[in-house]
Specification:
- The structure holds two protein chains of two kinds.
- Chain A is α+β, with helices and mostly antiparallel strands.
- Chain A has 17 helices and 28 strands.
- In chain A, the strands form six sheets. Chain A has a seven-stranded mixed β-sheet with strand order 4-6-2-13-10-11-12, sandwiched between helices. In chain A, strands 1-25-19-20-21 form a five-stranded mixed β-sheet. Chain A has a five-stranded mixed β-sheet with strand order 8-16-15-14-9, sandwiched between helices.
- In chain A, helix 9 (360-378) packs parallel to helix 16 and helix 12 runs parallel beside helix 13 (516-539).
- Chain B is of the alpha+beta class.
- In chain B, 53% of the residues are buried.
- Chain B has a domain at 224-322: Enolase-like, domain 1 (2-Layer Sandwich), CATH 3.30.390.50.
- The chains are: A alpha+beta, B alpha+beta.
C-alpha cells in the first residue's frame, strides 16, 4: 500500500523524539563507509560489462556557429575504431536540475566552446581517445561569443529574471540614512569539481536501455534520457548506488550518458563513456559569475530601513535557470524599503546551472561582506548589527518564520570562537610577517522539500529493508534513512538494509537543494508509520500506544519479538509531498561563521587559521554526517573566498583552467582545524522529522566571513572574489 | 593514446642507442611525461625506461655530493647531508608537488619538467613550444603564471619547477653522458634555455644525451631559504619563488646567491644583483635597489603584471629574513 503525507501544516507531533530505539541523531558511522574507503563500492565506470566498447566525446573548438563537416573516414580507418557518431538524440548541454525532459540536442549547432559535437567509439579507451584527438571537424564560426559579463553595463542588455521585489523608496532611504553602504561585489564562475567524473555505461537489449551512471536525481534523469532517446521512461533503467560527489553537476543528465546510450543502441553492444577531467570542466555546468550591487541604509543604531540587492548573472540562450543570488536576501534582514532583482545576460559559455548552494553561496558571501562594511561605517559590533536586524516577519511577504535559531547561532558561535567585536580597526595585530584578523558572517539557506517515495518492508525475521531511487552522493543518505527506519520500527541500525540508486525502486526526492534527507527521509517515516499501524492493529492497540524497540513490540505488559508477531512481511510505501507549507511560513536554515586569517604582509597570501560555524538546521538526523556536511561547506567557502575561479579566454571563449591543477580548490594545507557546532533545533514546519536541509548551509556566507577577516587583518577590502594575492597587493601597506 | 614502443634500457650504452631514435623519449618517474602523453601534447615514438640504470644514490664527490639522476625527490629531500648542508635544496623540493609525486619524481626527470602554460597543454590552442611555428596564444590571452623576464615573442612560458631554482642558487652542475660516451658538466644556470625563436627546446640536452646526475659543490653554509609564493598553500606552482644562500659577516653581506622561480623560461639568476649586495650592509634601501636591478628588464603580459611588485616584495622578505632583519 501507499500512504500519502502532504506537508501543508507544521507537524507538531514530533514523533521521532517519542520513539524508543534511541538511534536518531546519533553520530553513527556510514554503513557504506568501509566499502567506499576500501574501494569495493562500485562507481559508474567500475562495472565490468562484457564486450563493452569505449566512447570518447569530441568537443567543439569554436564558441558559436555550426559544424559543417565531420571527416570521419580517416578516423574510421584507425585500428579498433567502431564508429563516429553525431546523432540528433545526443544532448549538447546538461539538463538543469529537475528538468525531467531532454536538454538542447542540436548537435550541429555550436553554442559554446567545448560543446560536445561527436562521439568516437572504439574497442579500447586508448584507441577511442587517440581517434577523438585526430578527428577533423570543419566549422562555420559566427561572430565571436559575447564578451564577459563584467565588461557589460547596467540593466539595458539584460532580461529580468523572476519577480523583482520593489517596496518603498530605497533611494530616499539611502539619502536619509544615518549610515549607508552602496557597494558592488563580483564573483567568478565556479565548477562543481566532484571527485568522480561524469561517466556512464549503457546497454540496450532491443527494448530497454540500462545505464550505470553518476547522477543525483534518478526519477528526473530517467525522463530526461527517455525524452532524448525518444523512448518511454519505463524503457530506461538507471543505476547509481554510489555517486562520487555531485555538487549540482549531476542533478540532470550530461552529454556522456545520452552519447553512450545512442552508441549502445546503434552498435547493439554496451558502450562506456567517461568524461575526462577537462571535459567535465568544459561541457557540464558552471556557476555563473555574478555582479552584485548591495545597498544598505541604517539608522544610528544600525537598524536597516533600506535593503537593496541587485544581481547580474549569465547563462546560455534558451536556459531557464539563473543563479538565484538574492534568495536569502528576500527574508534574512529587516528594511522596509527594498529593491531586489536579478538580471540575466545571454552569453556563449557552457550552461550555467546549480553548483553548491545556487544563490546563497555567492549571494550571502557578498551580502555579508557588505554588512561588514556597514558595521565598520557605523562602528557597531558586526554580531550586534546582525542581531538588531532579525525581522519579526518576512519583510516583503509578511509570512511568519518557522523555527529560526539565527540569534542563538550568532551568540553560541561568537562564544565558542572567542569573538571580540569591540575593536574592528584593521592592521592591529601582527605576528611576524602575517597580519592577523577576524571576521564573521551569517549563514542562511532556504529550506526546500521535494516529492519523494520510499518503500519499507519489515520482515518476519526481524529485519527491515528500505528502497528508493534516492541517491547517496557522499552525504550519508544510507546512514540516515536506516536510522529513521530503525527508530520508527524499533530496530538497531544493523538490522535495516537501505537500497538506493536504482529506478526500479520507488522514486525518491533525489539529492539536490539540501532536500534529500527531509524529503526522502519523510517518505521513509510515512511508510514506517503505516507499518506501525498494522502492528498496532494486530496487537489491538492504538498506534500511539505502541512501543517498538530492539526488534520487539511492547504493548502494555506484553513484549513480543517481531519474529513471533509477524507471519508475513509487511511492505508499505511512503509518499511525501510538499503541500505548500513554504507558502505559509518562511522556512530556512541559519548559522554563523567566525574566522581568523593571516594575510602575508609581503606577498598578500591569505591563510585561514581557524574557523567556527554554528548552525541551526532543524533536527540533525545523524550528528556525524550533519557535521561533516557543514565542514565540507566551510571548505568550499575557503575555495570561494580565496582560490576558485573559472577563467575564460576573452578571444575565443574557451575555458583556460580546465583541470584541478589550475582550477584551485582548497587542499589539506589550506584548511585548518574547523569547528562545527550544531545548535539543537526542531522545526515542525521543516518536515515530519523536524529536520531541515543540511548539505548546502555550510558554504552560504562562509566566504564573506573570510573576506571580512582579511579586511580586519590588513585593511584591504577586496570586492572581487576570489581574494588572490594580486588583488591584495594593489592596496596592501608597504612591507 | 597514440601507440608507442616501450623499451627498458639495461645499460647506459643501450640507453644512448635507443634514445637517438627519432622522437624517442626517456622516462623515469613519468610524473609529467605520462600526463602529457595522455593529452597528446607529447607523442613520442618510443619510451626508453631508464629506471634500471645504475643512477641511484647520493655519494660524496670531491668536497660536494653527487646526486644520481634516479634519486627520487623524496629521497633527496630526506637525505641528512642535503638537509644539513644544502637545506635550500631540501626546502625547495618539499615546496613542490605532493608526497605521492615526490616519491615517483626523479632528480633528472624533475630538471626536464615541462612548462605548465595552459596553452601548451591545450591542443586546440596555438603554441610554438608544442607545435613550432603555430604562434603563442598565451600572448594576449590569460597569462597569470607566465614570464616577466627573458620571454620572447615566440613564447612567454615559465619553467615551473622548484628543485632547479635551489640548484641554481647552489651553483650545481648537471652531469650528462652523450651518445658517444663523453661526459660533460653543464651548470644548472646554463641547463635551461631562454625561449628565443626555438621555445620547443627547454634545455641544452641533445638527442641521445642521458642525465646521469647532479653535482653539488662543496657546502657553503650561510643562511639558506626557499620561499614560494602561490595561490594556495600546497599543490600549486609558484607565482614567484626565491632560493637564497646568504652569508653575513661583521654586519656585511659577504656572499649572496639568489635564484628565482616563476619569472622566466628558466630558473632566473642575475649576477648583477649578487654583486650589488655583496660587501654592503643590509638595509631596506639596498634591498629595494636589488629589486630594481633584478626587475629592470621585467615586462608584464597583462594578467601577470602583479608579478613585478610581488617579486620586489618577496625578495625584500627573503633578504630581510636572510640577514636577520625583522619581518
Amino acid at each position: 500500500m501507499t500512504r500519502l503525507y502532504t506537508m501543508d501544516k507544521p507537524d507538531e507531533r514530533n514523533r521521532l523524539d517519542a520513539m524508543a530505539q534511541g538511534i536518531i541523531g546519533r553520530p553513527l558511522d556510514r554503513p557504506d563507509g568501509s566499502a567506499k574507503t576500501s574501494g569495493v563500492a562500485p562507481y559508474a565506470a567500475e562495472y565490468v560489462v562484457p564486450d563493452c566498447a569505449e566512447g570518447v566525446l569530441v568537443l567543439s573548438t569554436i564558441s558559436r556557429g555550426e559544424v559543417v563537416e565531420i571527416e570521419s573516414a580517416p578516423v574510421l580507418a584507425m585500428p579498433g575504431v567502431l564508429a563516429v557518431i553525431a546523432d540528433p538524440r545526443m544532448i549538447t548541454r546538461s539538463a538543469q536540475g529537475g528538468a525531467g525532459k531532454s536538454p538542447v540536442r542540436e548537435i550541429q549547432k555550436v553554442d559554446y566552446y567545448g560543446q560536445p559535437v561527436a562521439l568516437v567509439v572504439a574497442e579500447t579507451f586508448e584507441q577511442a581517445r587517440d581517434a577523438a584527438t585526430r578527428l577533423r571537424i570543419a566549422y562555420r564560426a559566427d561572430d565571436p561569443a559575447r564578451v564577459p559579463l563584467a565588461q557589460e553595463d547596467g540593466h539595458a542588455s539584460h532580461e529580468s529574471y523572476g519577480e523583482p521585489v520593489q517596496r518603498g523608496n530605497l533611494d530616499a532611504a539611502m539619502r536619509d540614512a544615518a549610515h549607508a553602504v552602496d557597494v558592488t561585489y563580483t564573483t567568478e564562475g565556479h565548477a562543481s569539481a566532484a571527485m568522480e567524473p561524469h561517466a556512464s555505461i549503457a546497454e540496450w537489449d532491443g527494448n530497454t536501455l540500462t545505464a550505470h551512471s553518476s547522477l543525483q536525481m534518478l526519477k528526473y534523469n530517467q525522463k530526461e534520457l527517455a525524452d532524448a532517446l525518444g523512448l518511454k521512461p519505463e524503457q530506461v533503467r538507471l543505476i547509481a548506488p554510489y555517486v562520487g560527489g555531485g555538487f549540482g553537476s549531476k542533478l540532470g543528465i550530461s552529454a556522456e550518458l545520452a552519447a553512450a546510450a545512442v552508441a549502445a543502441i546503434e552498435l547493439a553492444r554496451p558502450v562506456q563513456v567517461v568524461m575526462s577531467r577537462q571535459q567535465v570542466f568544459q561541457c557540464v555546468m558552471r556557476r555563473s559569475e555574478t555582479r552584485q550591487r548591495i545597498r544598505l541604509a541604517a539608522d544610528a543604531e544600525g537598524r536597516l530601513s533600506g535593503f537593496g540587492h541587485e544581481a547580474w548573472v549569465s547563462n546560455l540562450p534558451g536556459e531557464k535557470f539563473a543563479e538565484p543570488v538574492t534568495q536569502a536576501s528576500e527574508f534574512l534582514y529587516r528594511g522596509e524599503h527594498r529593491t531586489l532583482r536579478i538580471d540575466l545576460a545571454r552569453i556563449h559559455r557552457m550552461t550555467a546551472g546549480s553548483v553548491r548552494a545556487p544563490g546563497e553561496a555567492v549571494g550571502m558571501q557578498c551580502l555579508e561582506a557588505a554588512m561588514d562594511e556597514l558595521a565598520i561605517t557605523s562602528g557597531i559590533d558586526p554580531v550586534a548589527l546582525r542581531l538588531r536586524n532579525i525581522p519579526e516577519e518576512h519583510p516583503s511577504q509578511g509570512l511568519p518564520y518557522s523555527s529560526r535559531r539565527l540569534a542563538e547561532c550568532l551568540k553560541v558561535g561568537a562564544d565558542r570562537f572567542g569573538w571580540d567585536g569591540t575593536d574592528r580597526r584593521p592592521c592591529q595585530r601582527r605576528e611576524g610577517e602575517w597580519w592577523i584578523g577576524t571576521g564573521m558572517a551569517t549563514a542562511c539557506r532556504v529550506h526546500n522539500l521535494n516529492e519523494a517515495q520510499a518503500k519499507v518492508t519489515l520482515s518476519s525475521d526481524g529485519t527491515a529493508v528500505v528502497e528508493s531511487d534516492m541517491t547517496d552522493i557522499g552525504t550519508g543518505t544510507y546512514a540516515i534513512l536506516g536510522q529513521i527506519a530503525g527508530e520508527m520500527l524499533g530496530l538497531p541500525p544493523e538490522k535495516v538494509l537501505v537500497q538506493l540508486g536504482d529506478t526500479r525502486y520507488p522514486p525518491g526526492s533525489g539529492s539536490g537543494g539540501s532536500w534529500g534527507a527531509a524529503s526522502t527521509g519523510s517518505a521513509v517515516f510515512v511508510a514506517c508509520e503505516a507499518i506501525r499501524e498494522q502492528l498496532a492493529e494486530q496487537l489491538g492497540i492504538e498506534e500511539t500506544d505502541l512501543t517498538l524497540k530492539d526488534g520487539e513490540a511492547i504493548a502494555g505488559n506484553r513484549r513480543i519479538p517481531f519474529t513471533q508477531l509477524l507471519t508475513a512481511d509487511i511492505s508499505e510505501t511512503g509518499h511525501f509531498k510538499n503541500g505548500g507549507i513554504d507558502e505559509k511560513f518562511a522556512i530556512a536554515m541559519y548559522g554563523a561563521f567566525f574566522v581568523e586569517v593571516g594575510v602575508n604582509a609581503y606577498t598578500g597570501e591569505t591563510r585561514v587559521r581557524r574557523m567556527t560555524g554554528a548552525f541551526g538546521l532543524g533536527r540533525a538526523l545523524n550528528e556525524k554526517t550533519a557535521t561533516s556536511q557543514c565542514l565540507g561547506g566551510m571548505v568550499w567557502g575557503i575555495g570561494s573566498a580565496l582560490t576558485e575561479e573559472l577563467v575564460f579566454d576573452p578571444r575565443d571563449g574557451h575555458l583556460v583552467n580546465h583541470d584541478l591543477a589550475e582550477y584551485h580548490v582548497p587542499v589539506n594545507l589550506d584548511v585548518p582545524a574547523l569547528e562545527v557546532v550544531l545548535v539543537d533545533e526542531r522545526d515542525a514546519a521543516g518536515s515530519p522529522l523536524q529536520a531541515k536541509g543540511v548539505g548546502e548551509l555550510g558554504i552560504c556566507g562562509a566566504a564573506g566571513a573570510i573576506a571580512n577577516a582579511v579586511h580586519h587583518a590588513c585593511g584591504v577590502r577586496v570586492r572581487s572574489f576570489p581574494i588572490t594575492p594580486d588583488k591584495l597587493l594593489e592596496d596592501l601597506p608597504d612591507a | 593514446m597514440k601507440p608507442f614502443d616501450y623499451q627498458r634500457a639495461h645499460g647506459l650504452g643501450e640507453a644512448h642507442q635507443l634514445l637517438v631514435a627519432d622522437r624517442a623519449r626517456p622516462i623515469a618517474g613519468g610524473t609529467n611525461l605520462l600526463d602529457l602523453m595522455k593529452l597528446e601534447v607529447e607523442t613520442p615514438s618510443a619510451l626508453v625506461d631508464l629506471n634500471r640504470l645504475p643512477l641511484g644514490g647520493i655519494e660524496p664527490r670531491g668536497e660536494g655530493l653527487h646526486i644520481g639522476a634516479l634519486v627520487s625527490n623524496s629521497a633527496c629531500a630526506a637525505d641528512p647531508r642535503i638537509r644539513s648542508q644544502y637545506p635550500v635544496l631540501a626546502r625547495a623540493i618539499l615546496a613542490g608537488a605532493t608526497f605521492q609525486l615526490r616519491n615517483k619524481a626523479t632528480t633528472g626527470g624533475n630538471l626536464c619538467q615541462r612548462t605548465r602554460c595552459y596553452y601548451f597543454y591545450d591542443l586546440a590552442q596555438a603554441c610554438n613550444k608544442r607545435a613550432p611555428g603555430t604562434g603563442c596564444a598565451a600572448v594576449g590571452g590569460f597569462n597569470r603564471i607566465h614570464a616577466i623576464l627573458g620571454a620572447s615573442d615566440a613564447c612567454i612560458a615559465t619553467y615551473p619547477g622548484d628543485m632547479a631554482v635551489a640548484l641554481s642558487a647552489l651553483d650545481a652542475a648537471v652531469e650528462i653522458l652523450d651518445a658517444k660516451g663523453d661526459k660533460r658538466h653543464v651548470p644548472v644556470r646554463d641547463f635551461h634555455r631562454l625561449p628565443g625563436d626555438t621555445p620547443e627546446r627547454d634545455n641544452v640536452l641533445e638527442p641521445g644525451d642521458v642525465i646521469t646526475g647532479v653535482v653539488l659543490p662543496a657546502p657553503v653554509g650561510g643562511t639558506q631559504l626557499y620561499r614560494k609564493v602561490r595561490d594556495r598553500a600546497s599543490y600549486a606552482f609558484a607565482l614567484v619563488s626565491v632560493a637564497a644562500v646568504v652569508h653575513l659577516e661583521d654586519g656585511v653581506i659577504a656572499r649572496a646567491r639568489l635564484a628565482f622561480g616563476g619569472l622566466a623560461h628558466k630558473p632566473w639568476h642575475d649576477p648583477r644583483v649578487e654583486q650589488l649586495l655583496e660587501g654592503q650592509a643590509p638595509s631596506d634601501a639596498l634591498f629595494d635597489e636589488a629589486a630594481i636591478l633584478l626587475l629592470d628588464q621585467a615586462r608584464g603580459q597583462g594578467s601577470n603584471d602583479f608579478k613585478i611588485p610581488l617579486t620586489r616584495r618577496t625578495l625584500k622578505a627573503v633578504l630581510r629574513e636572510a640577514t636577520g632583519g625583522t619581518l
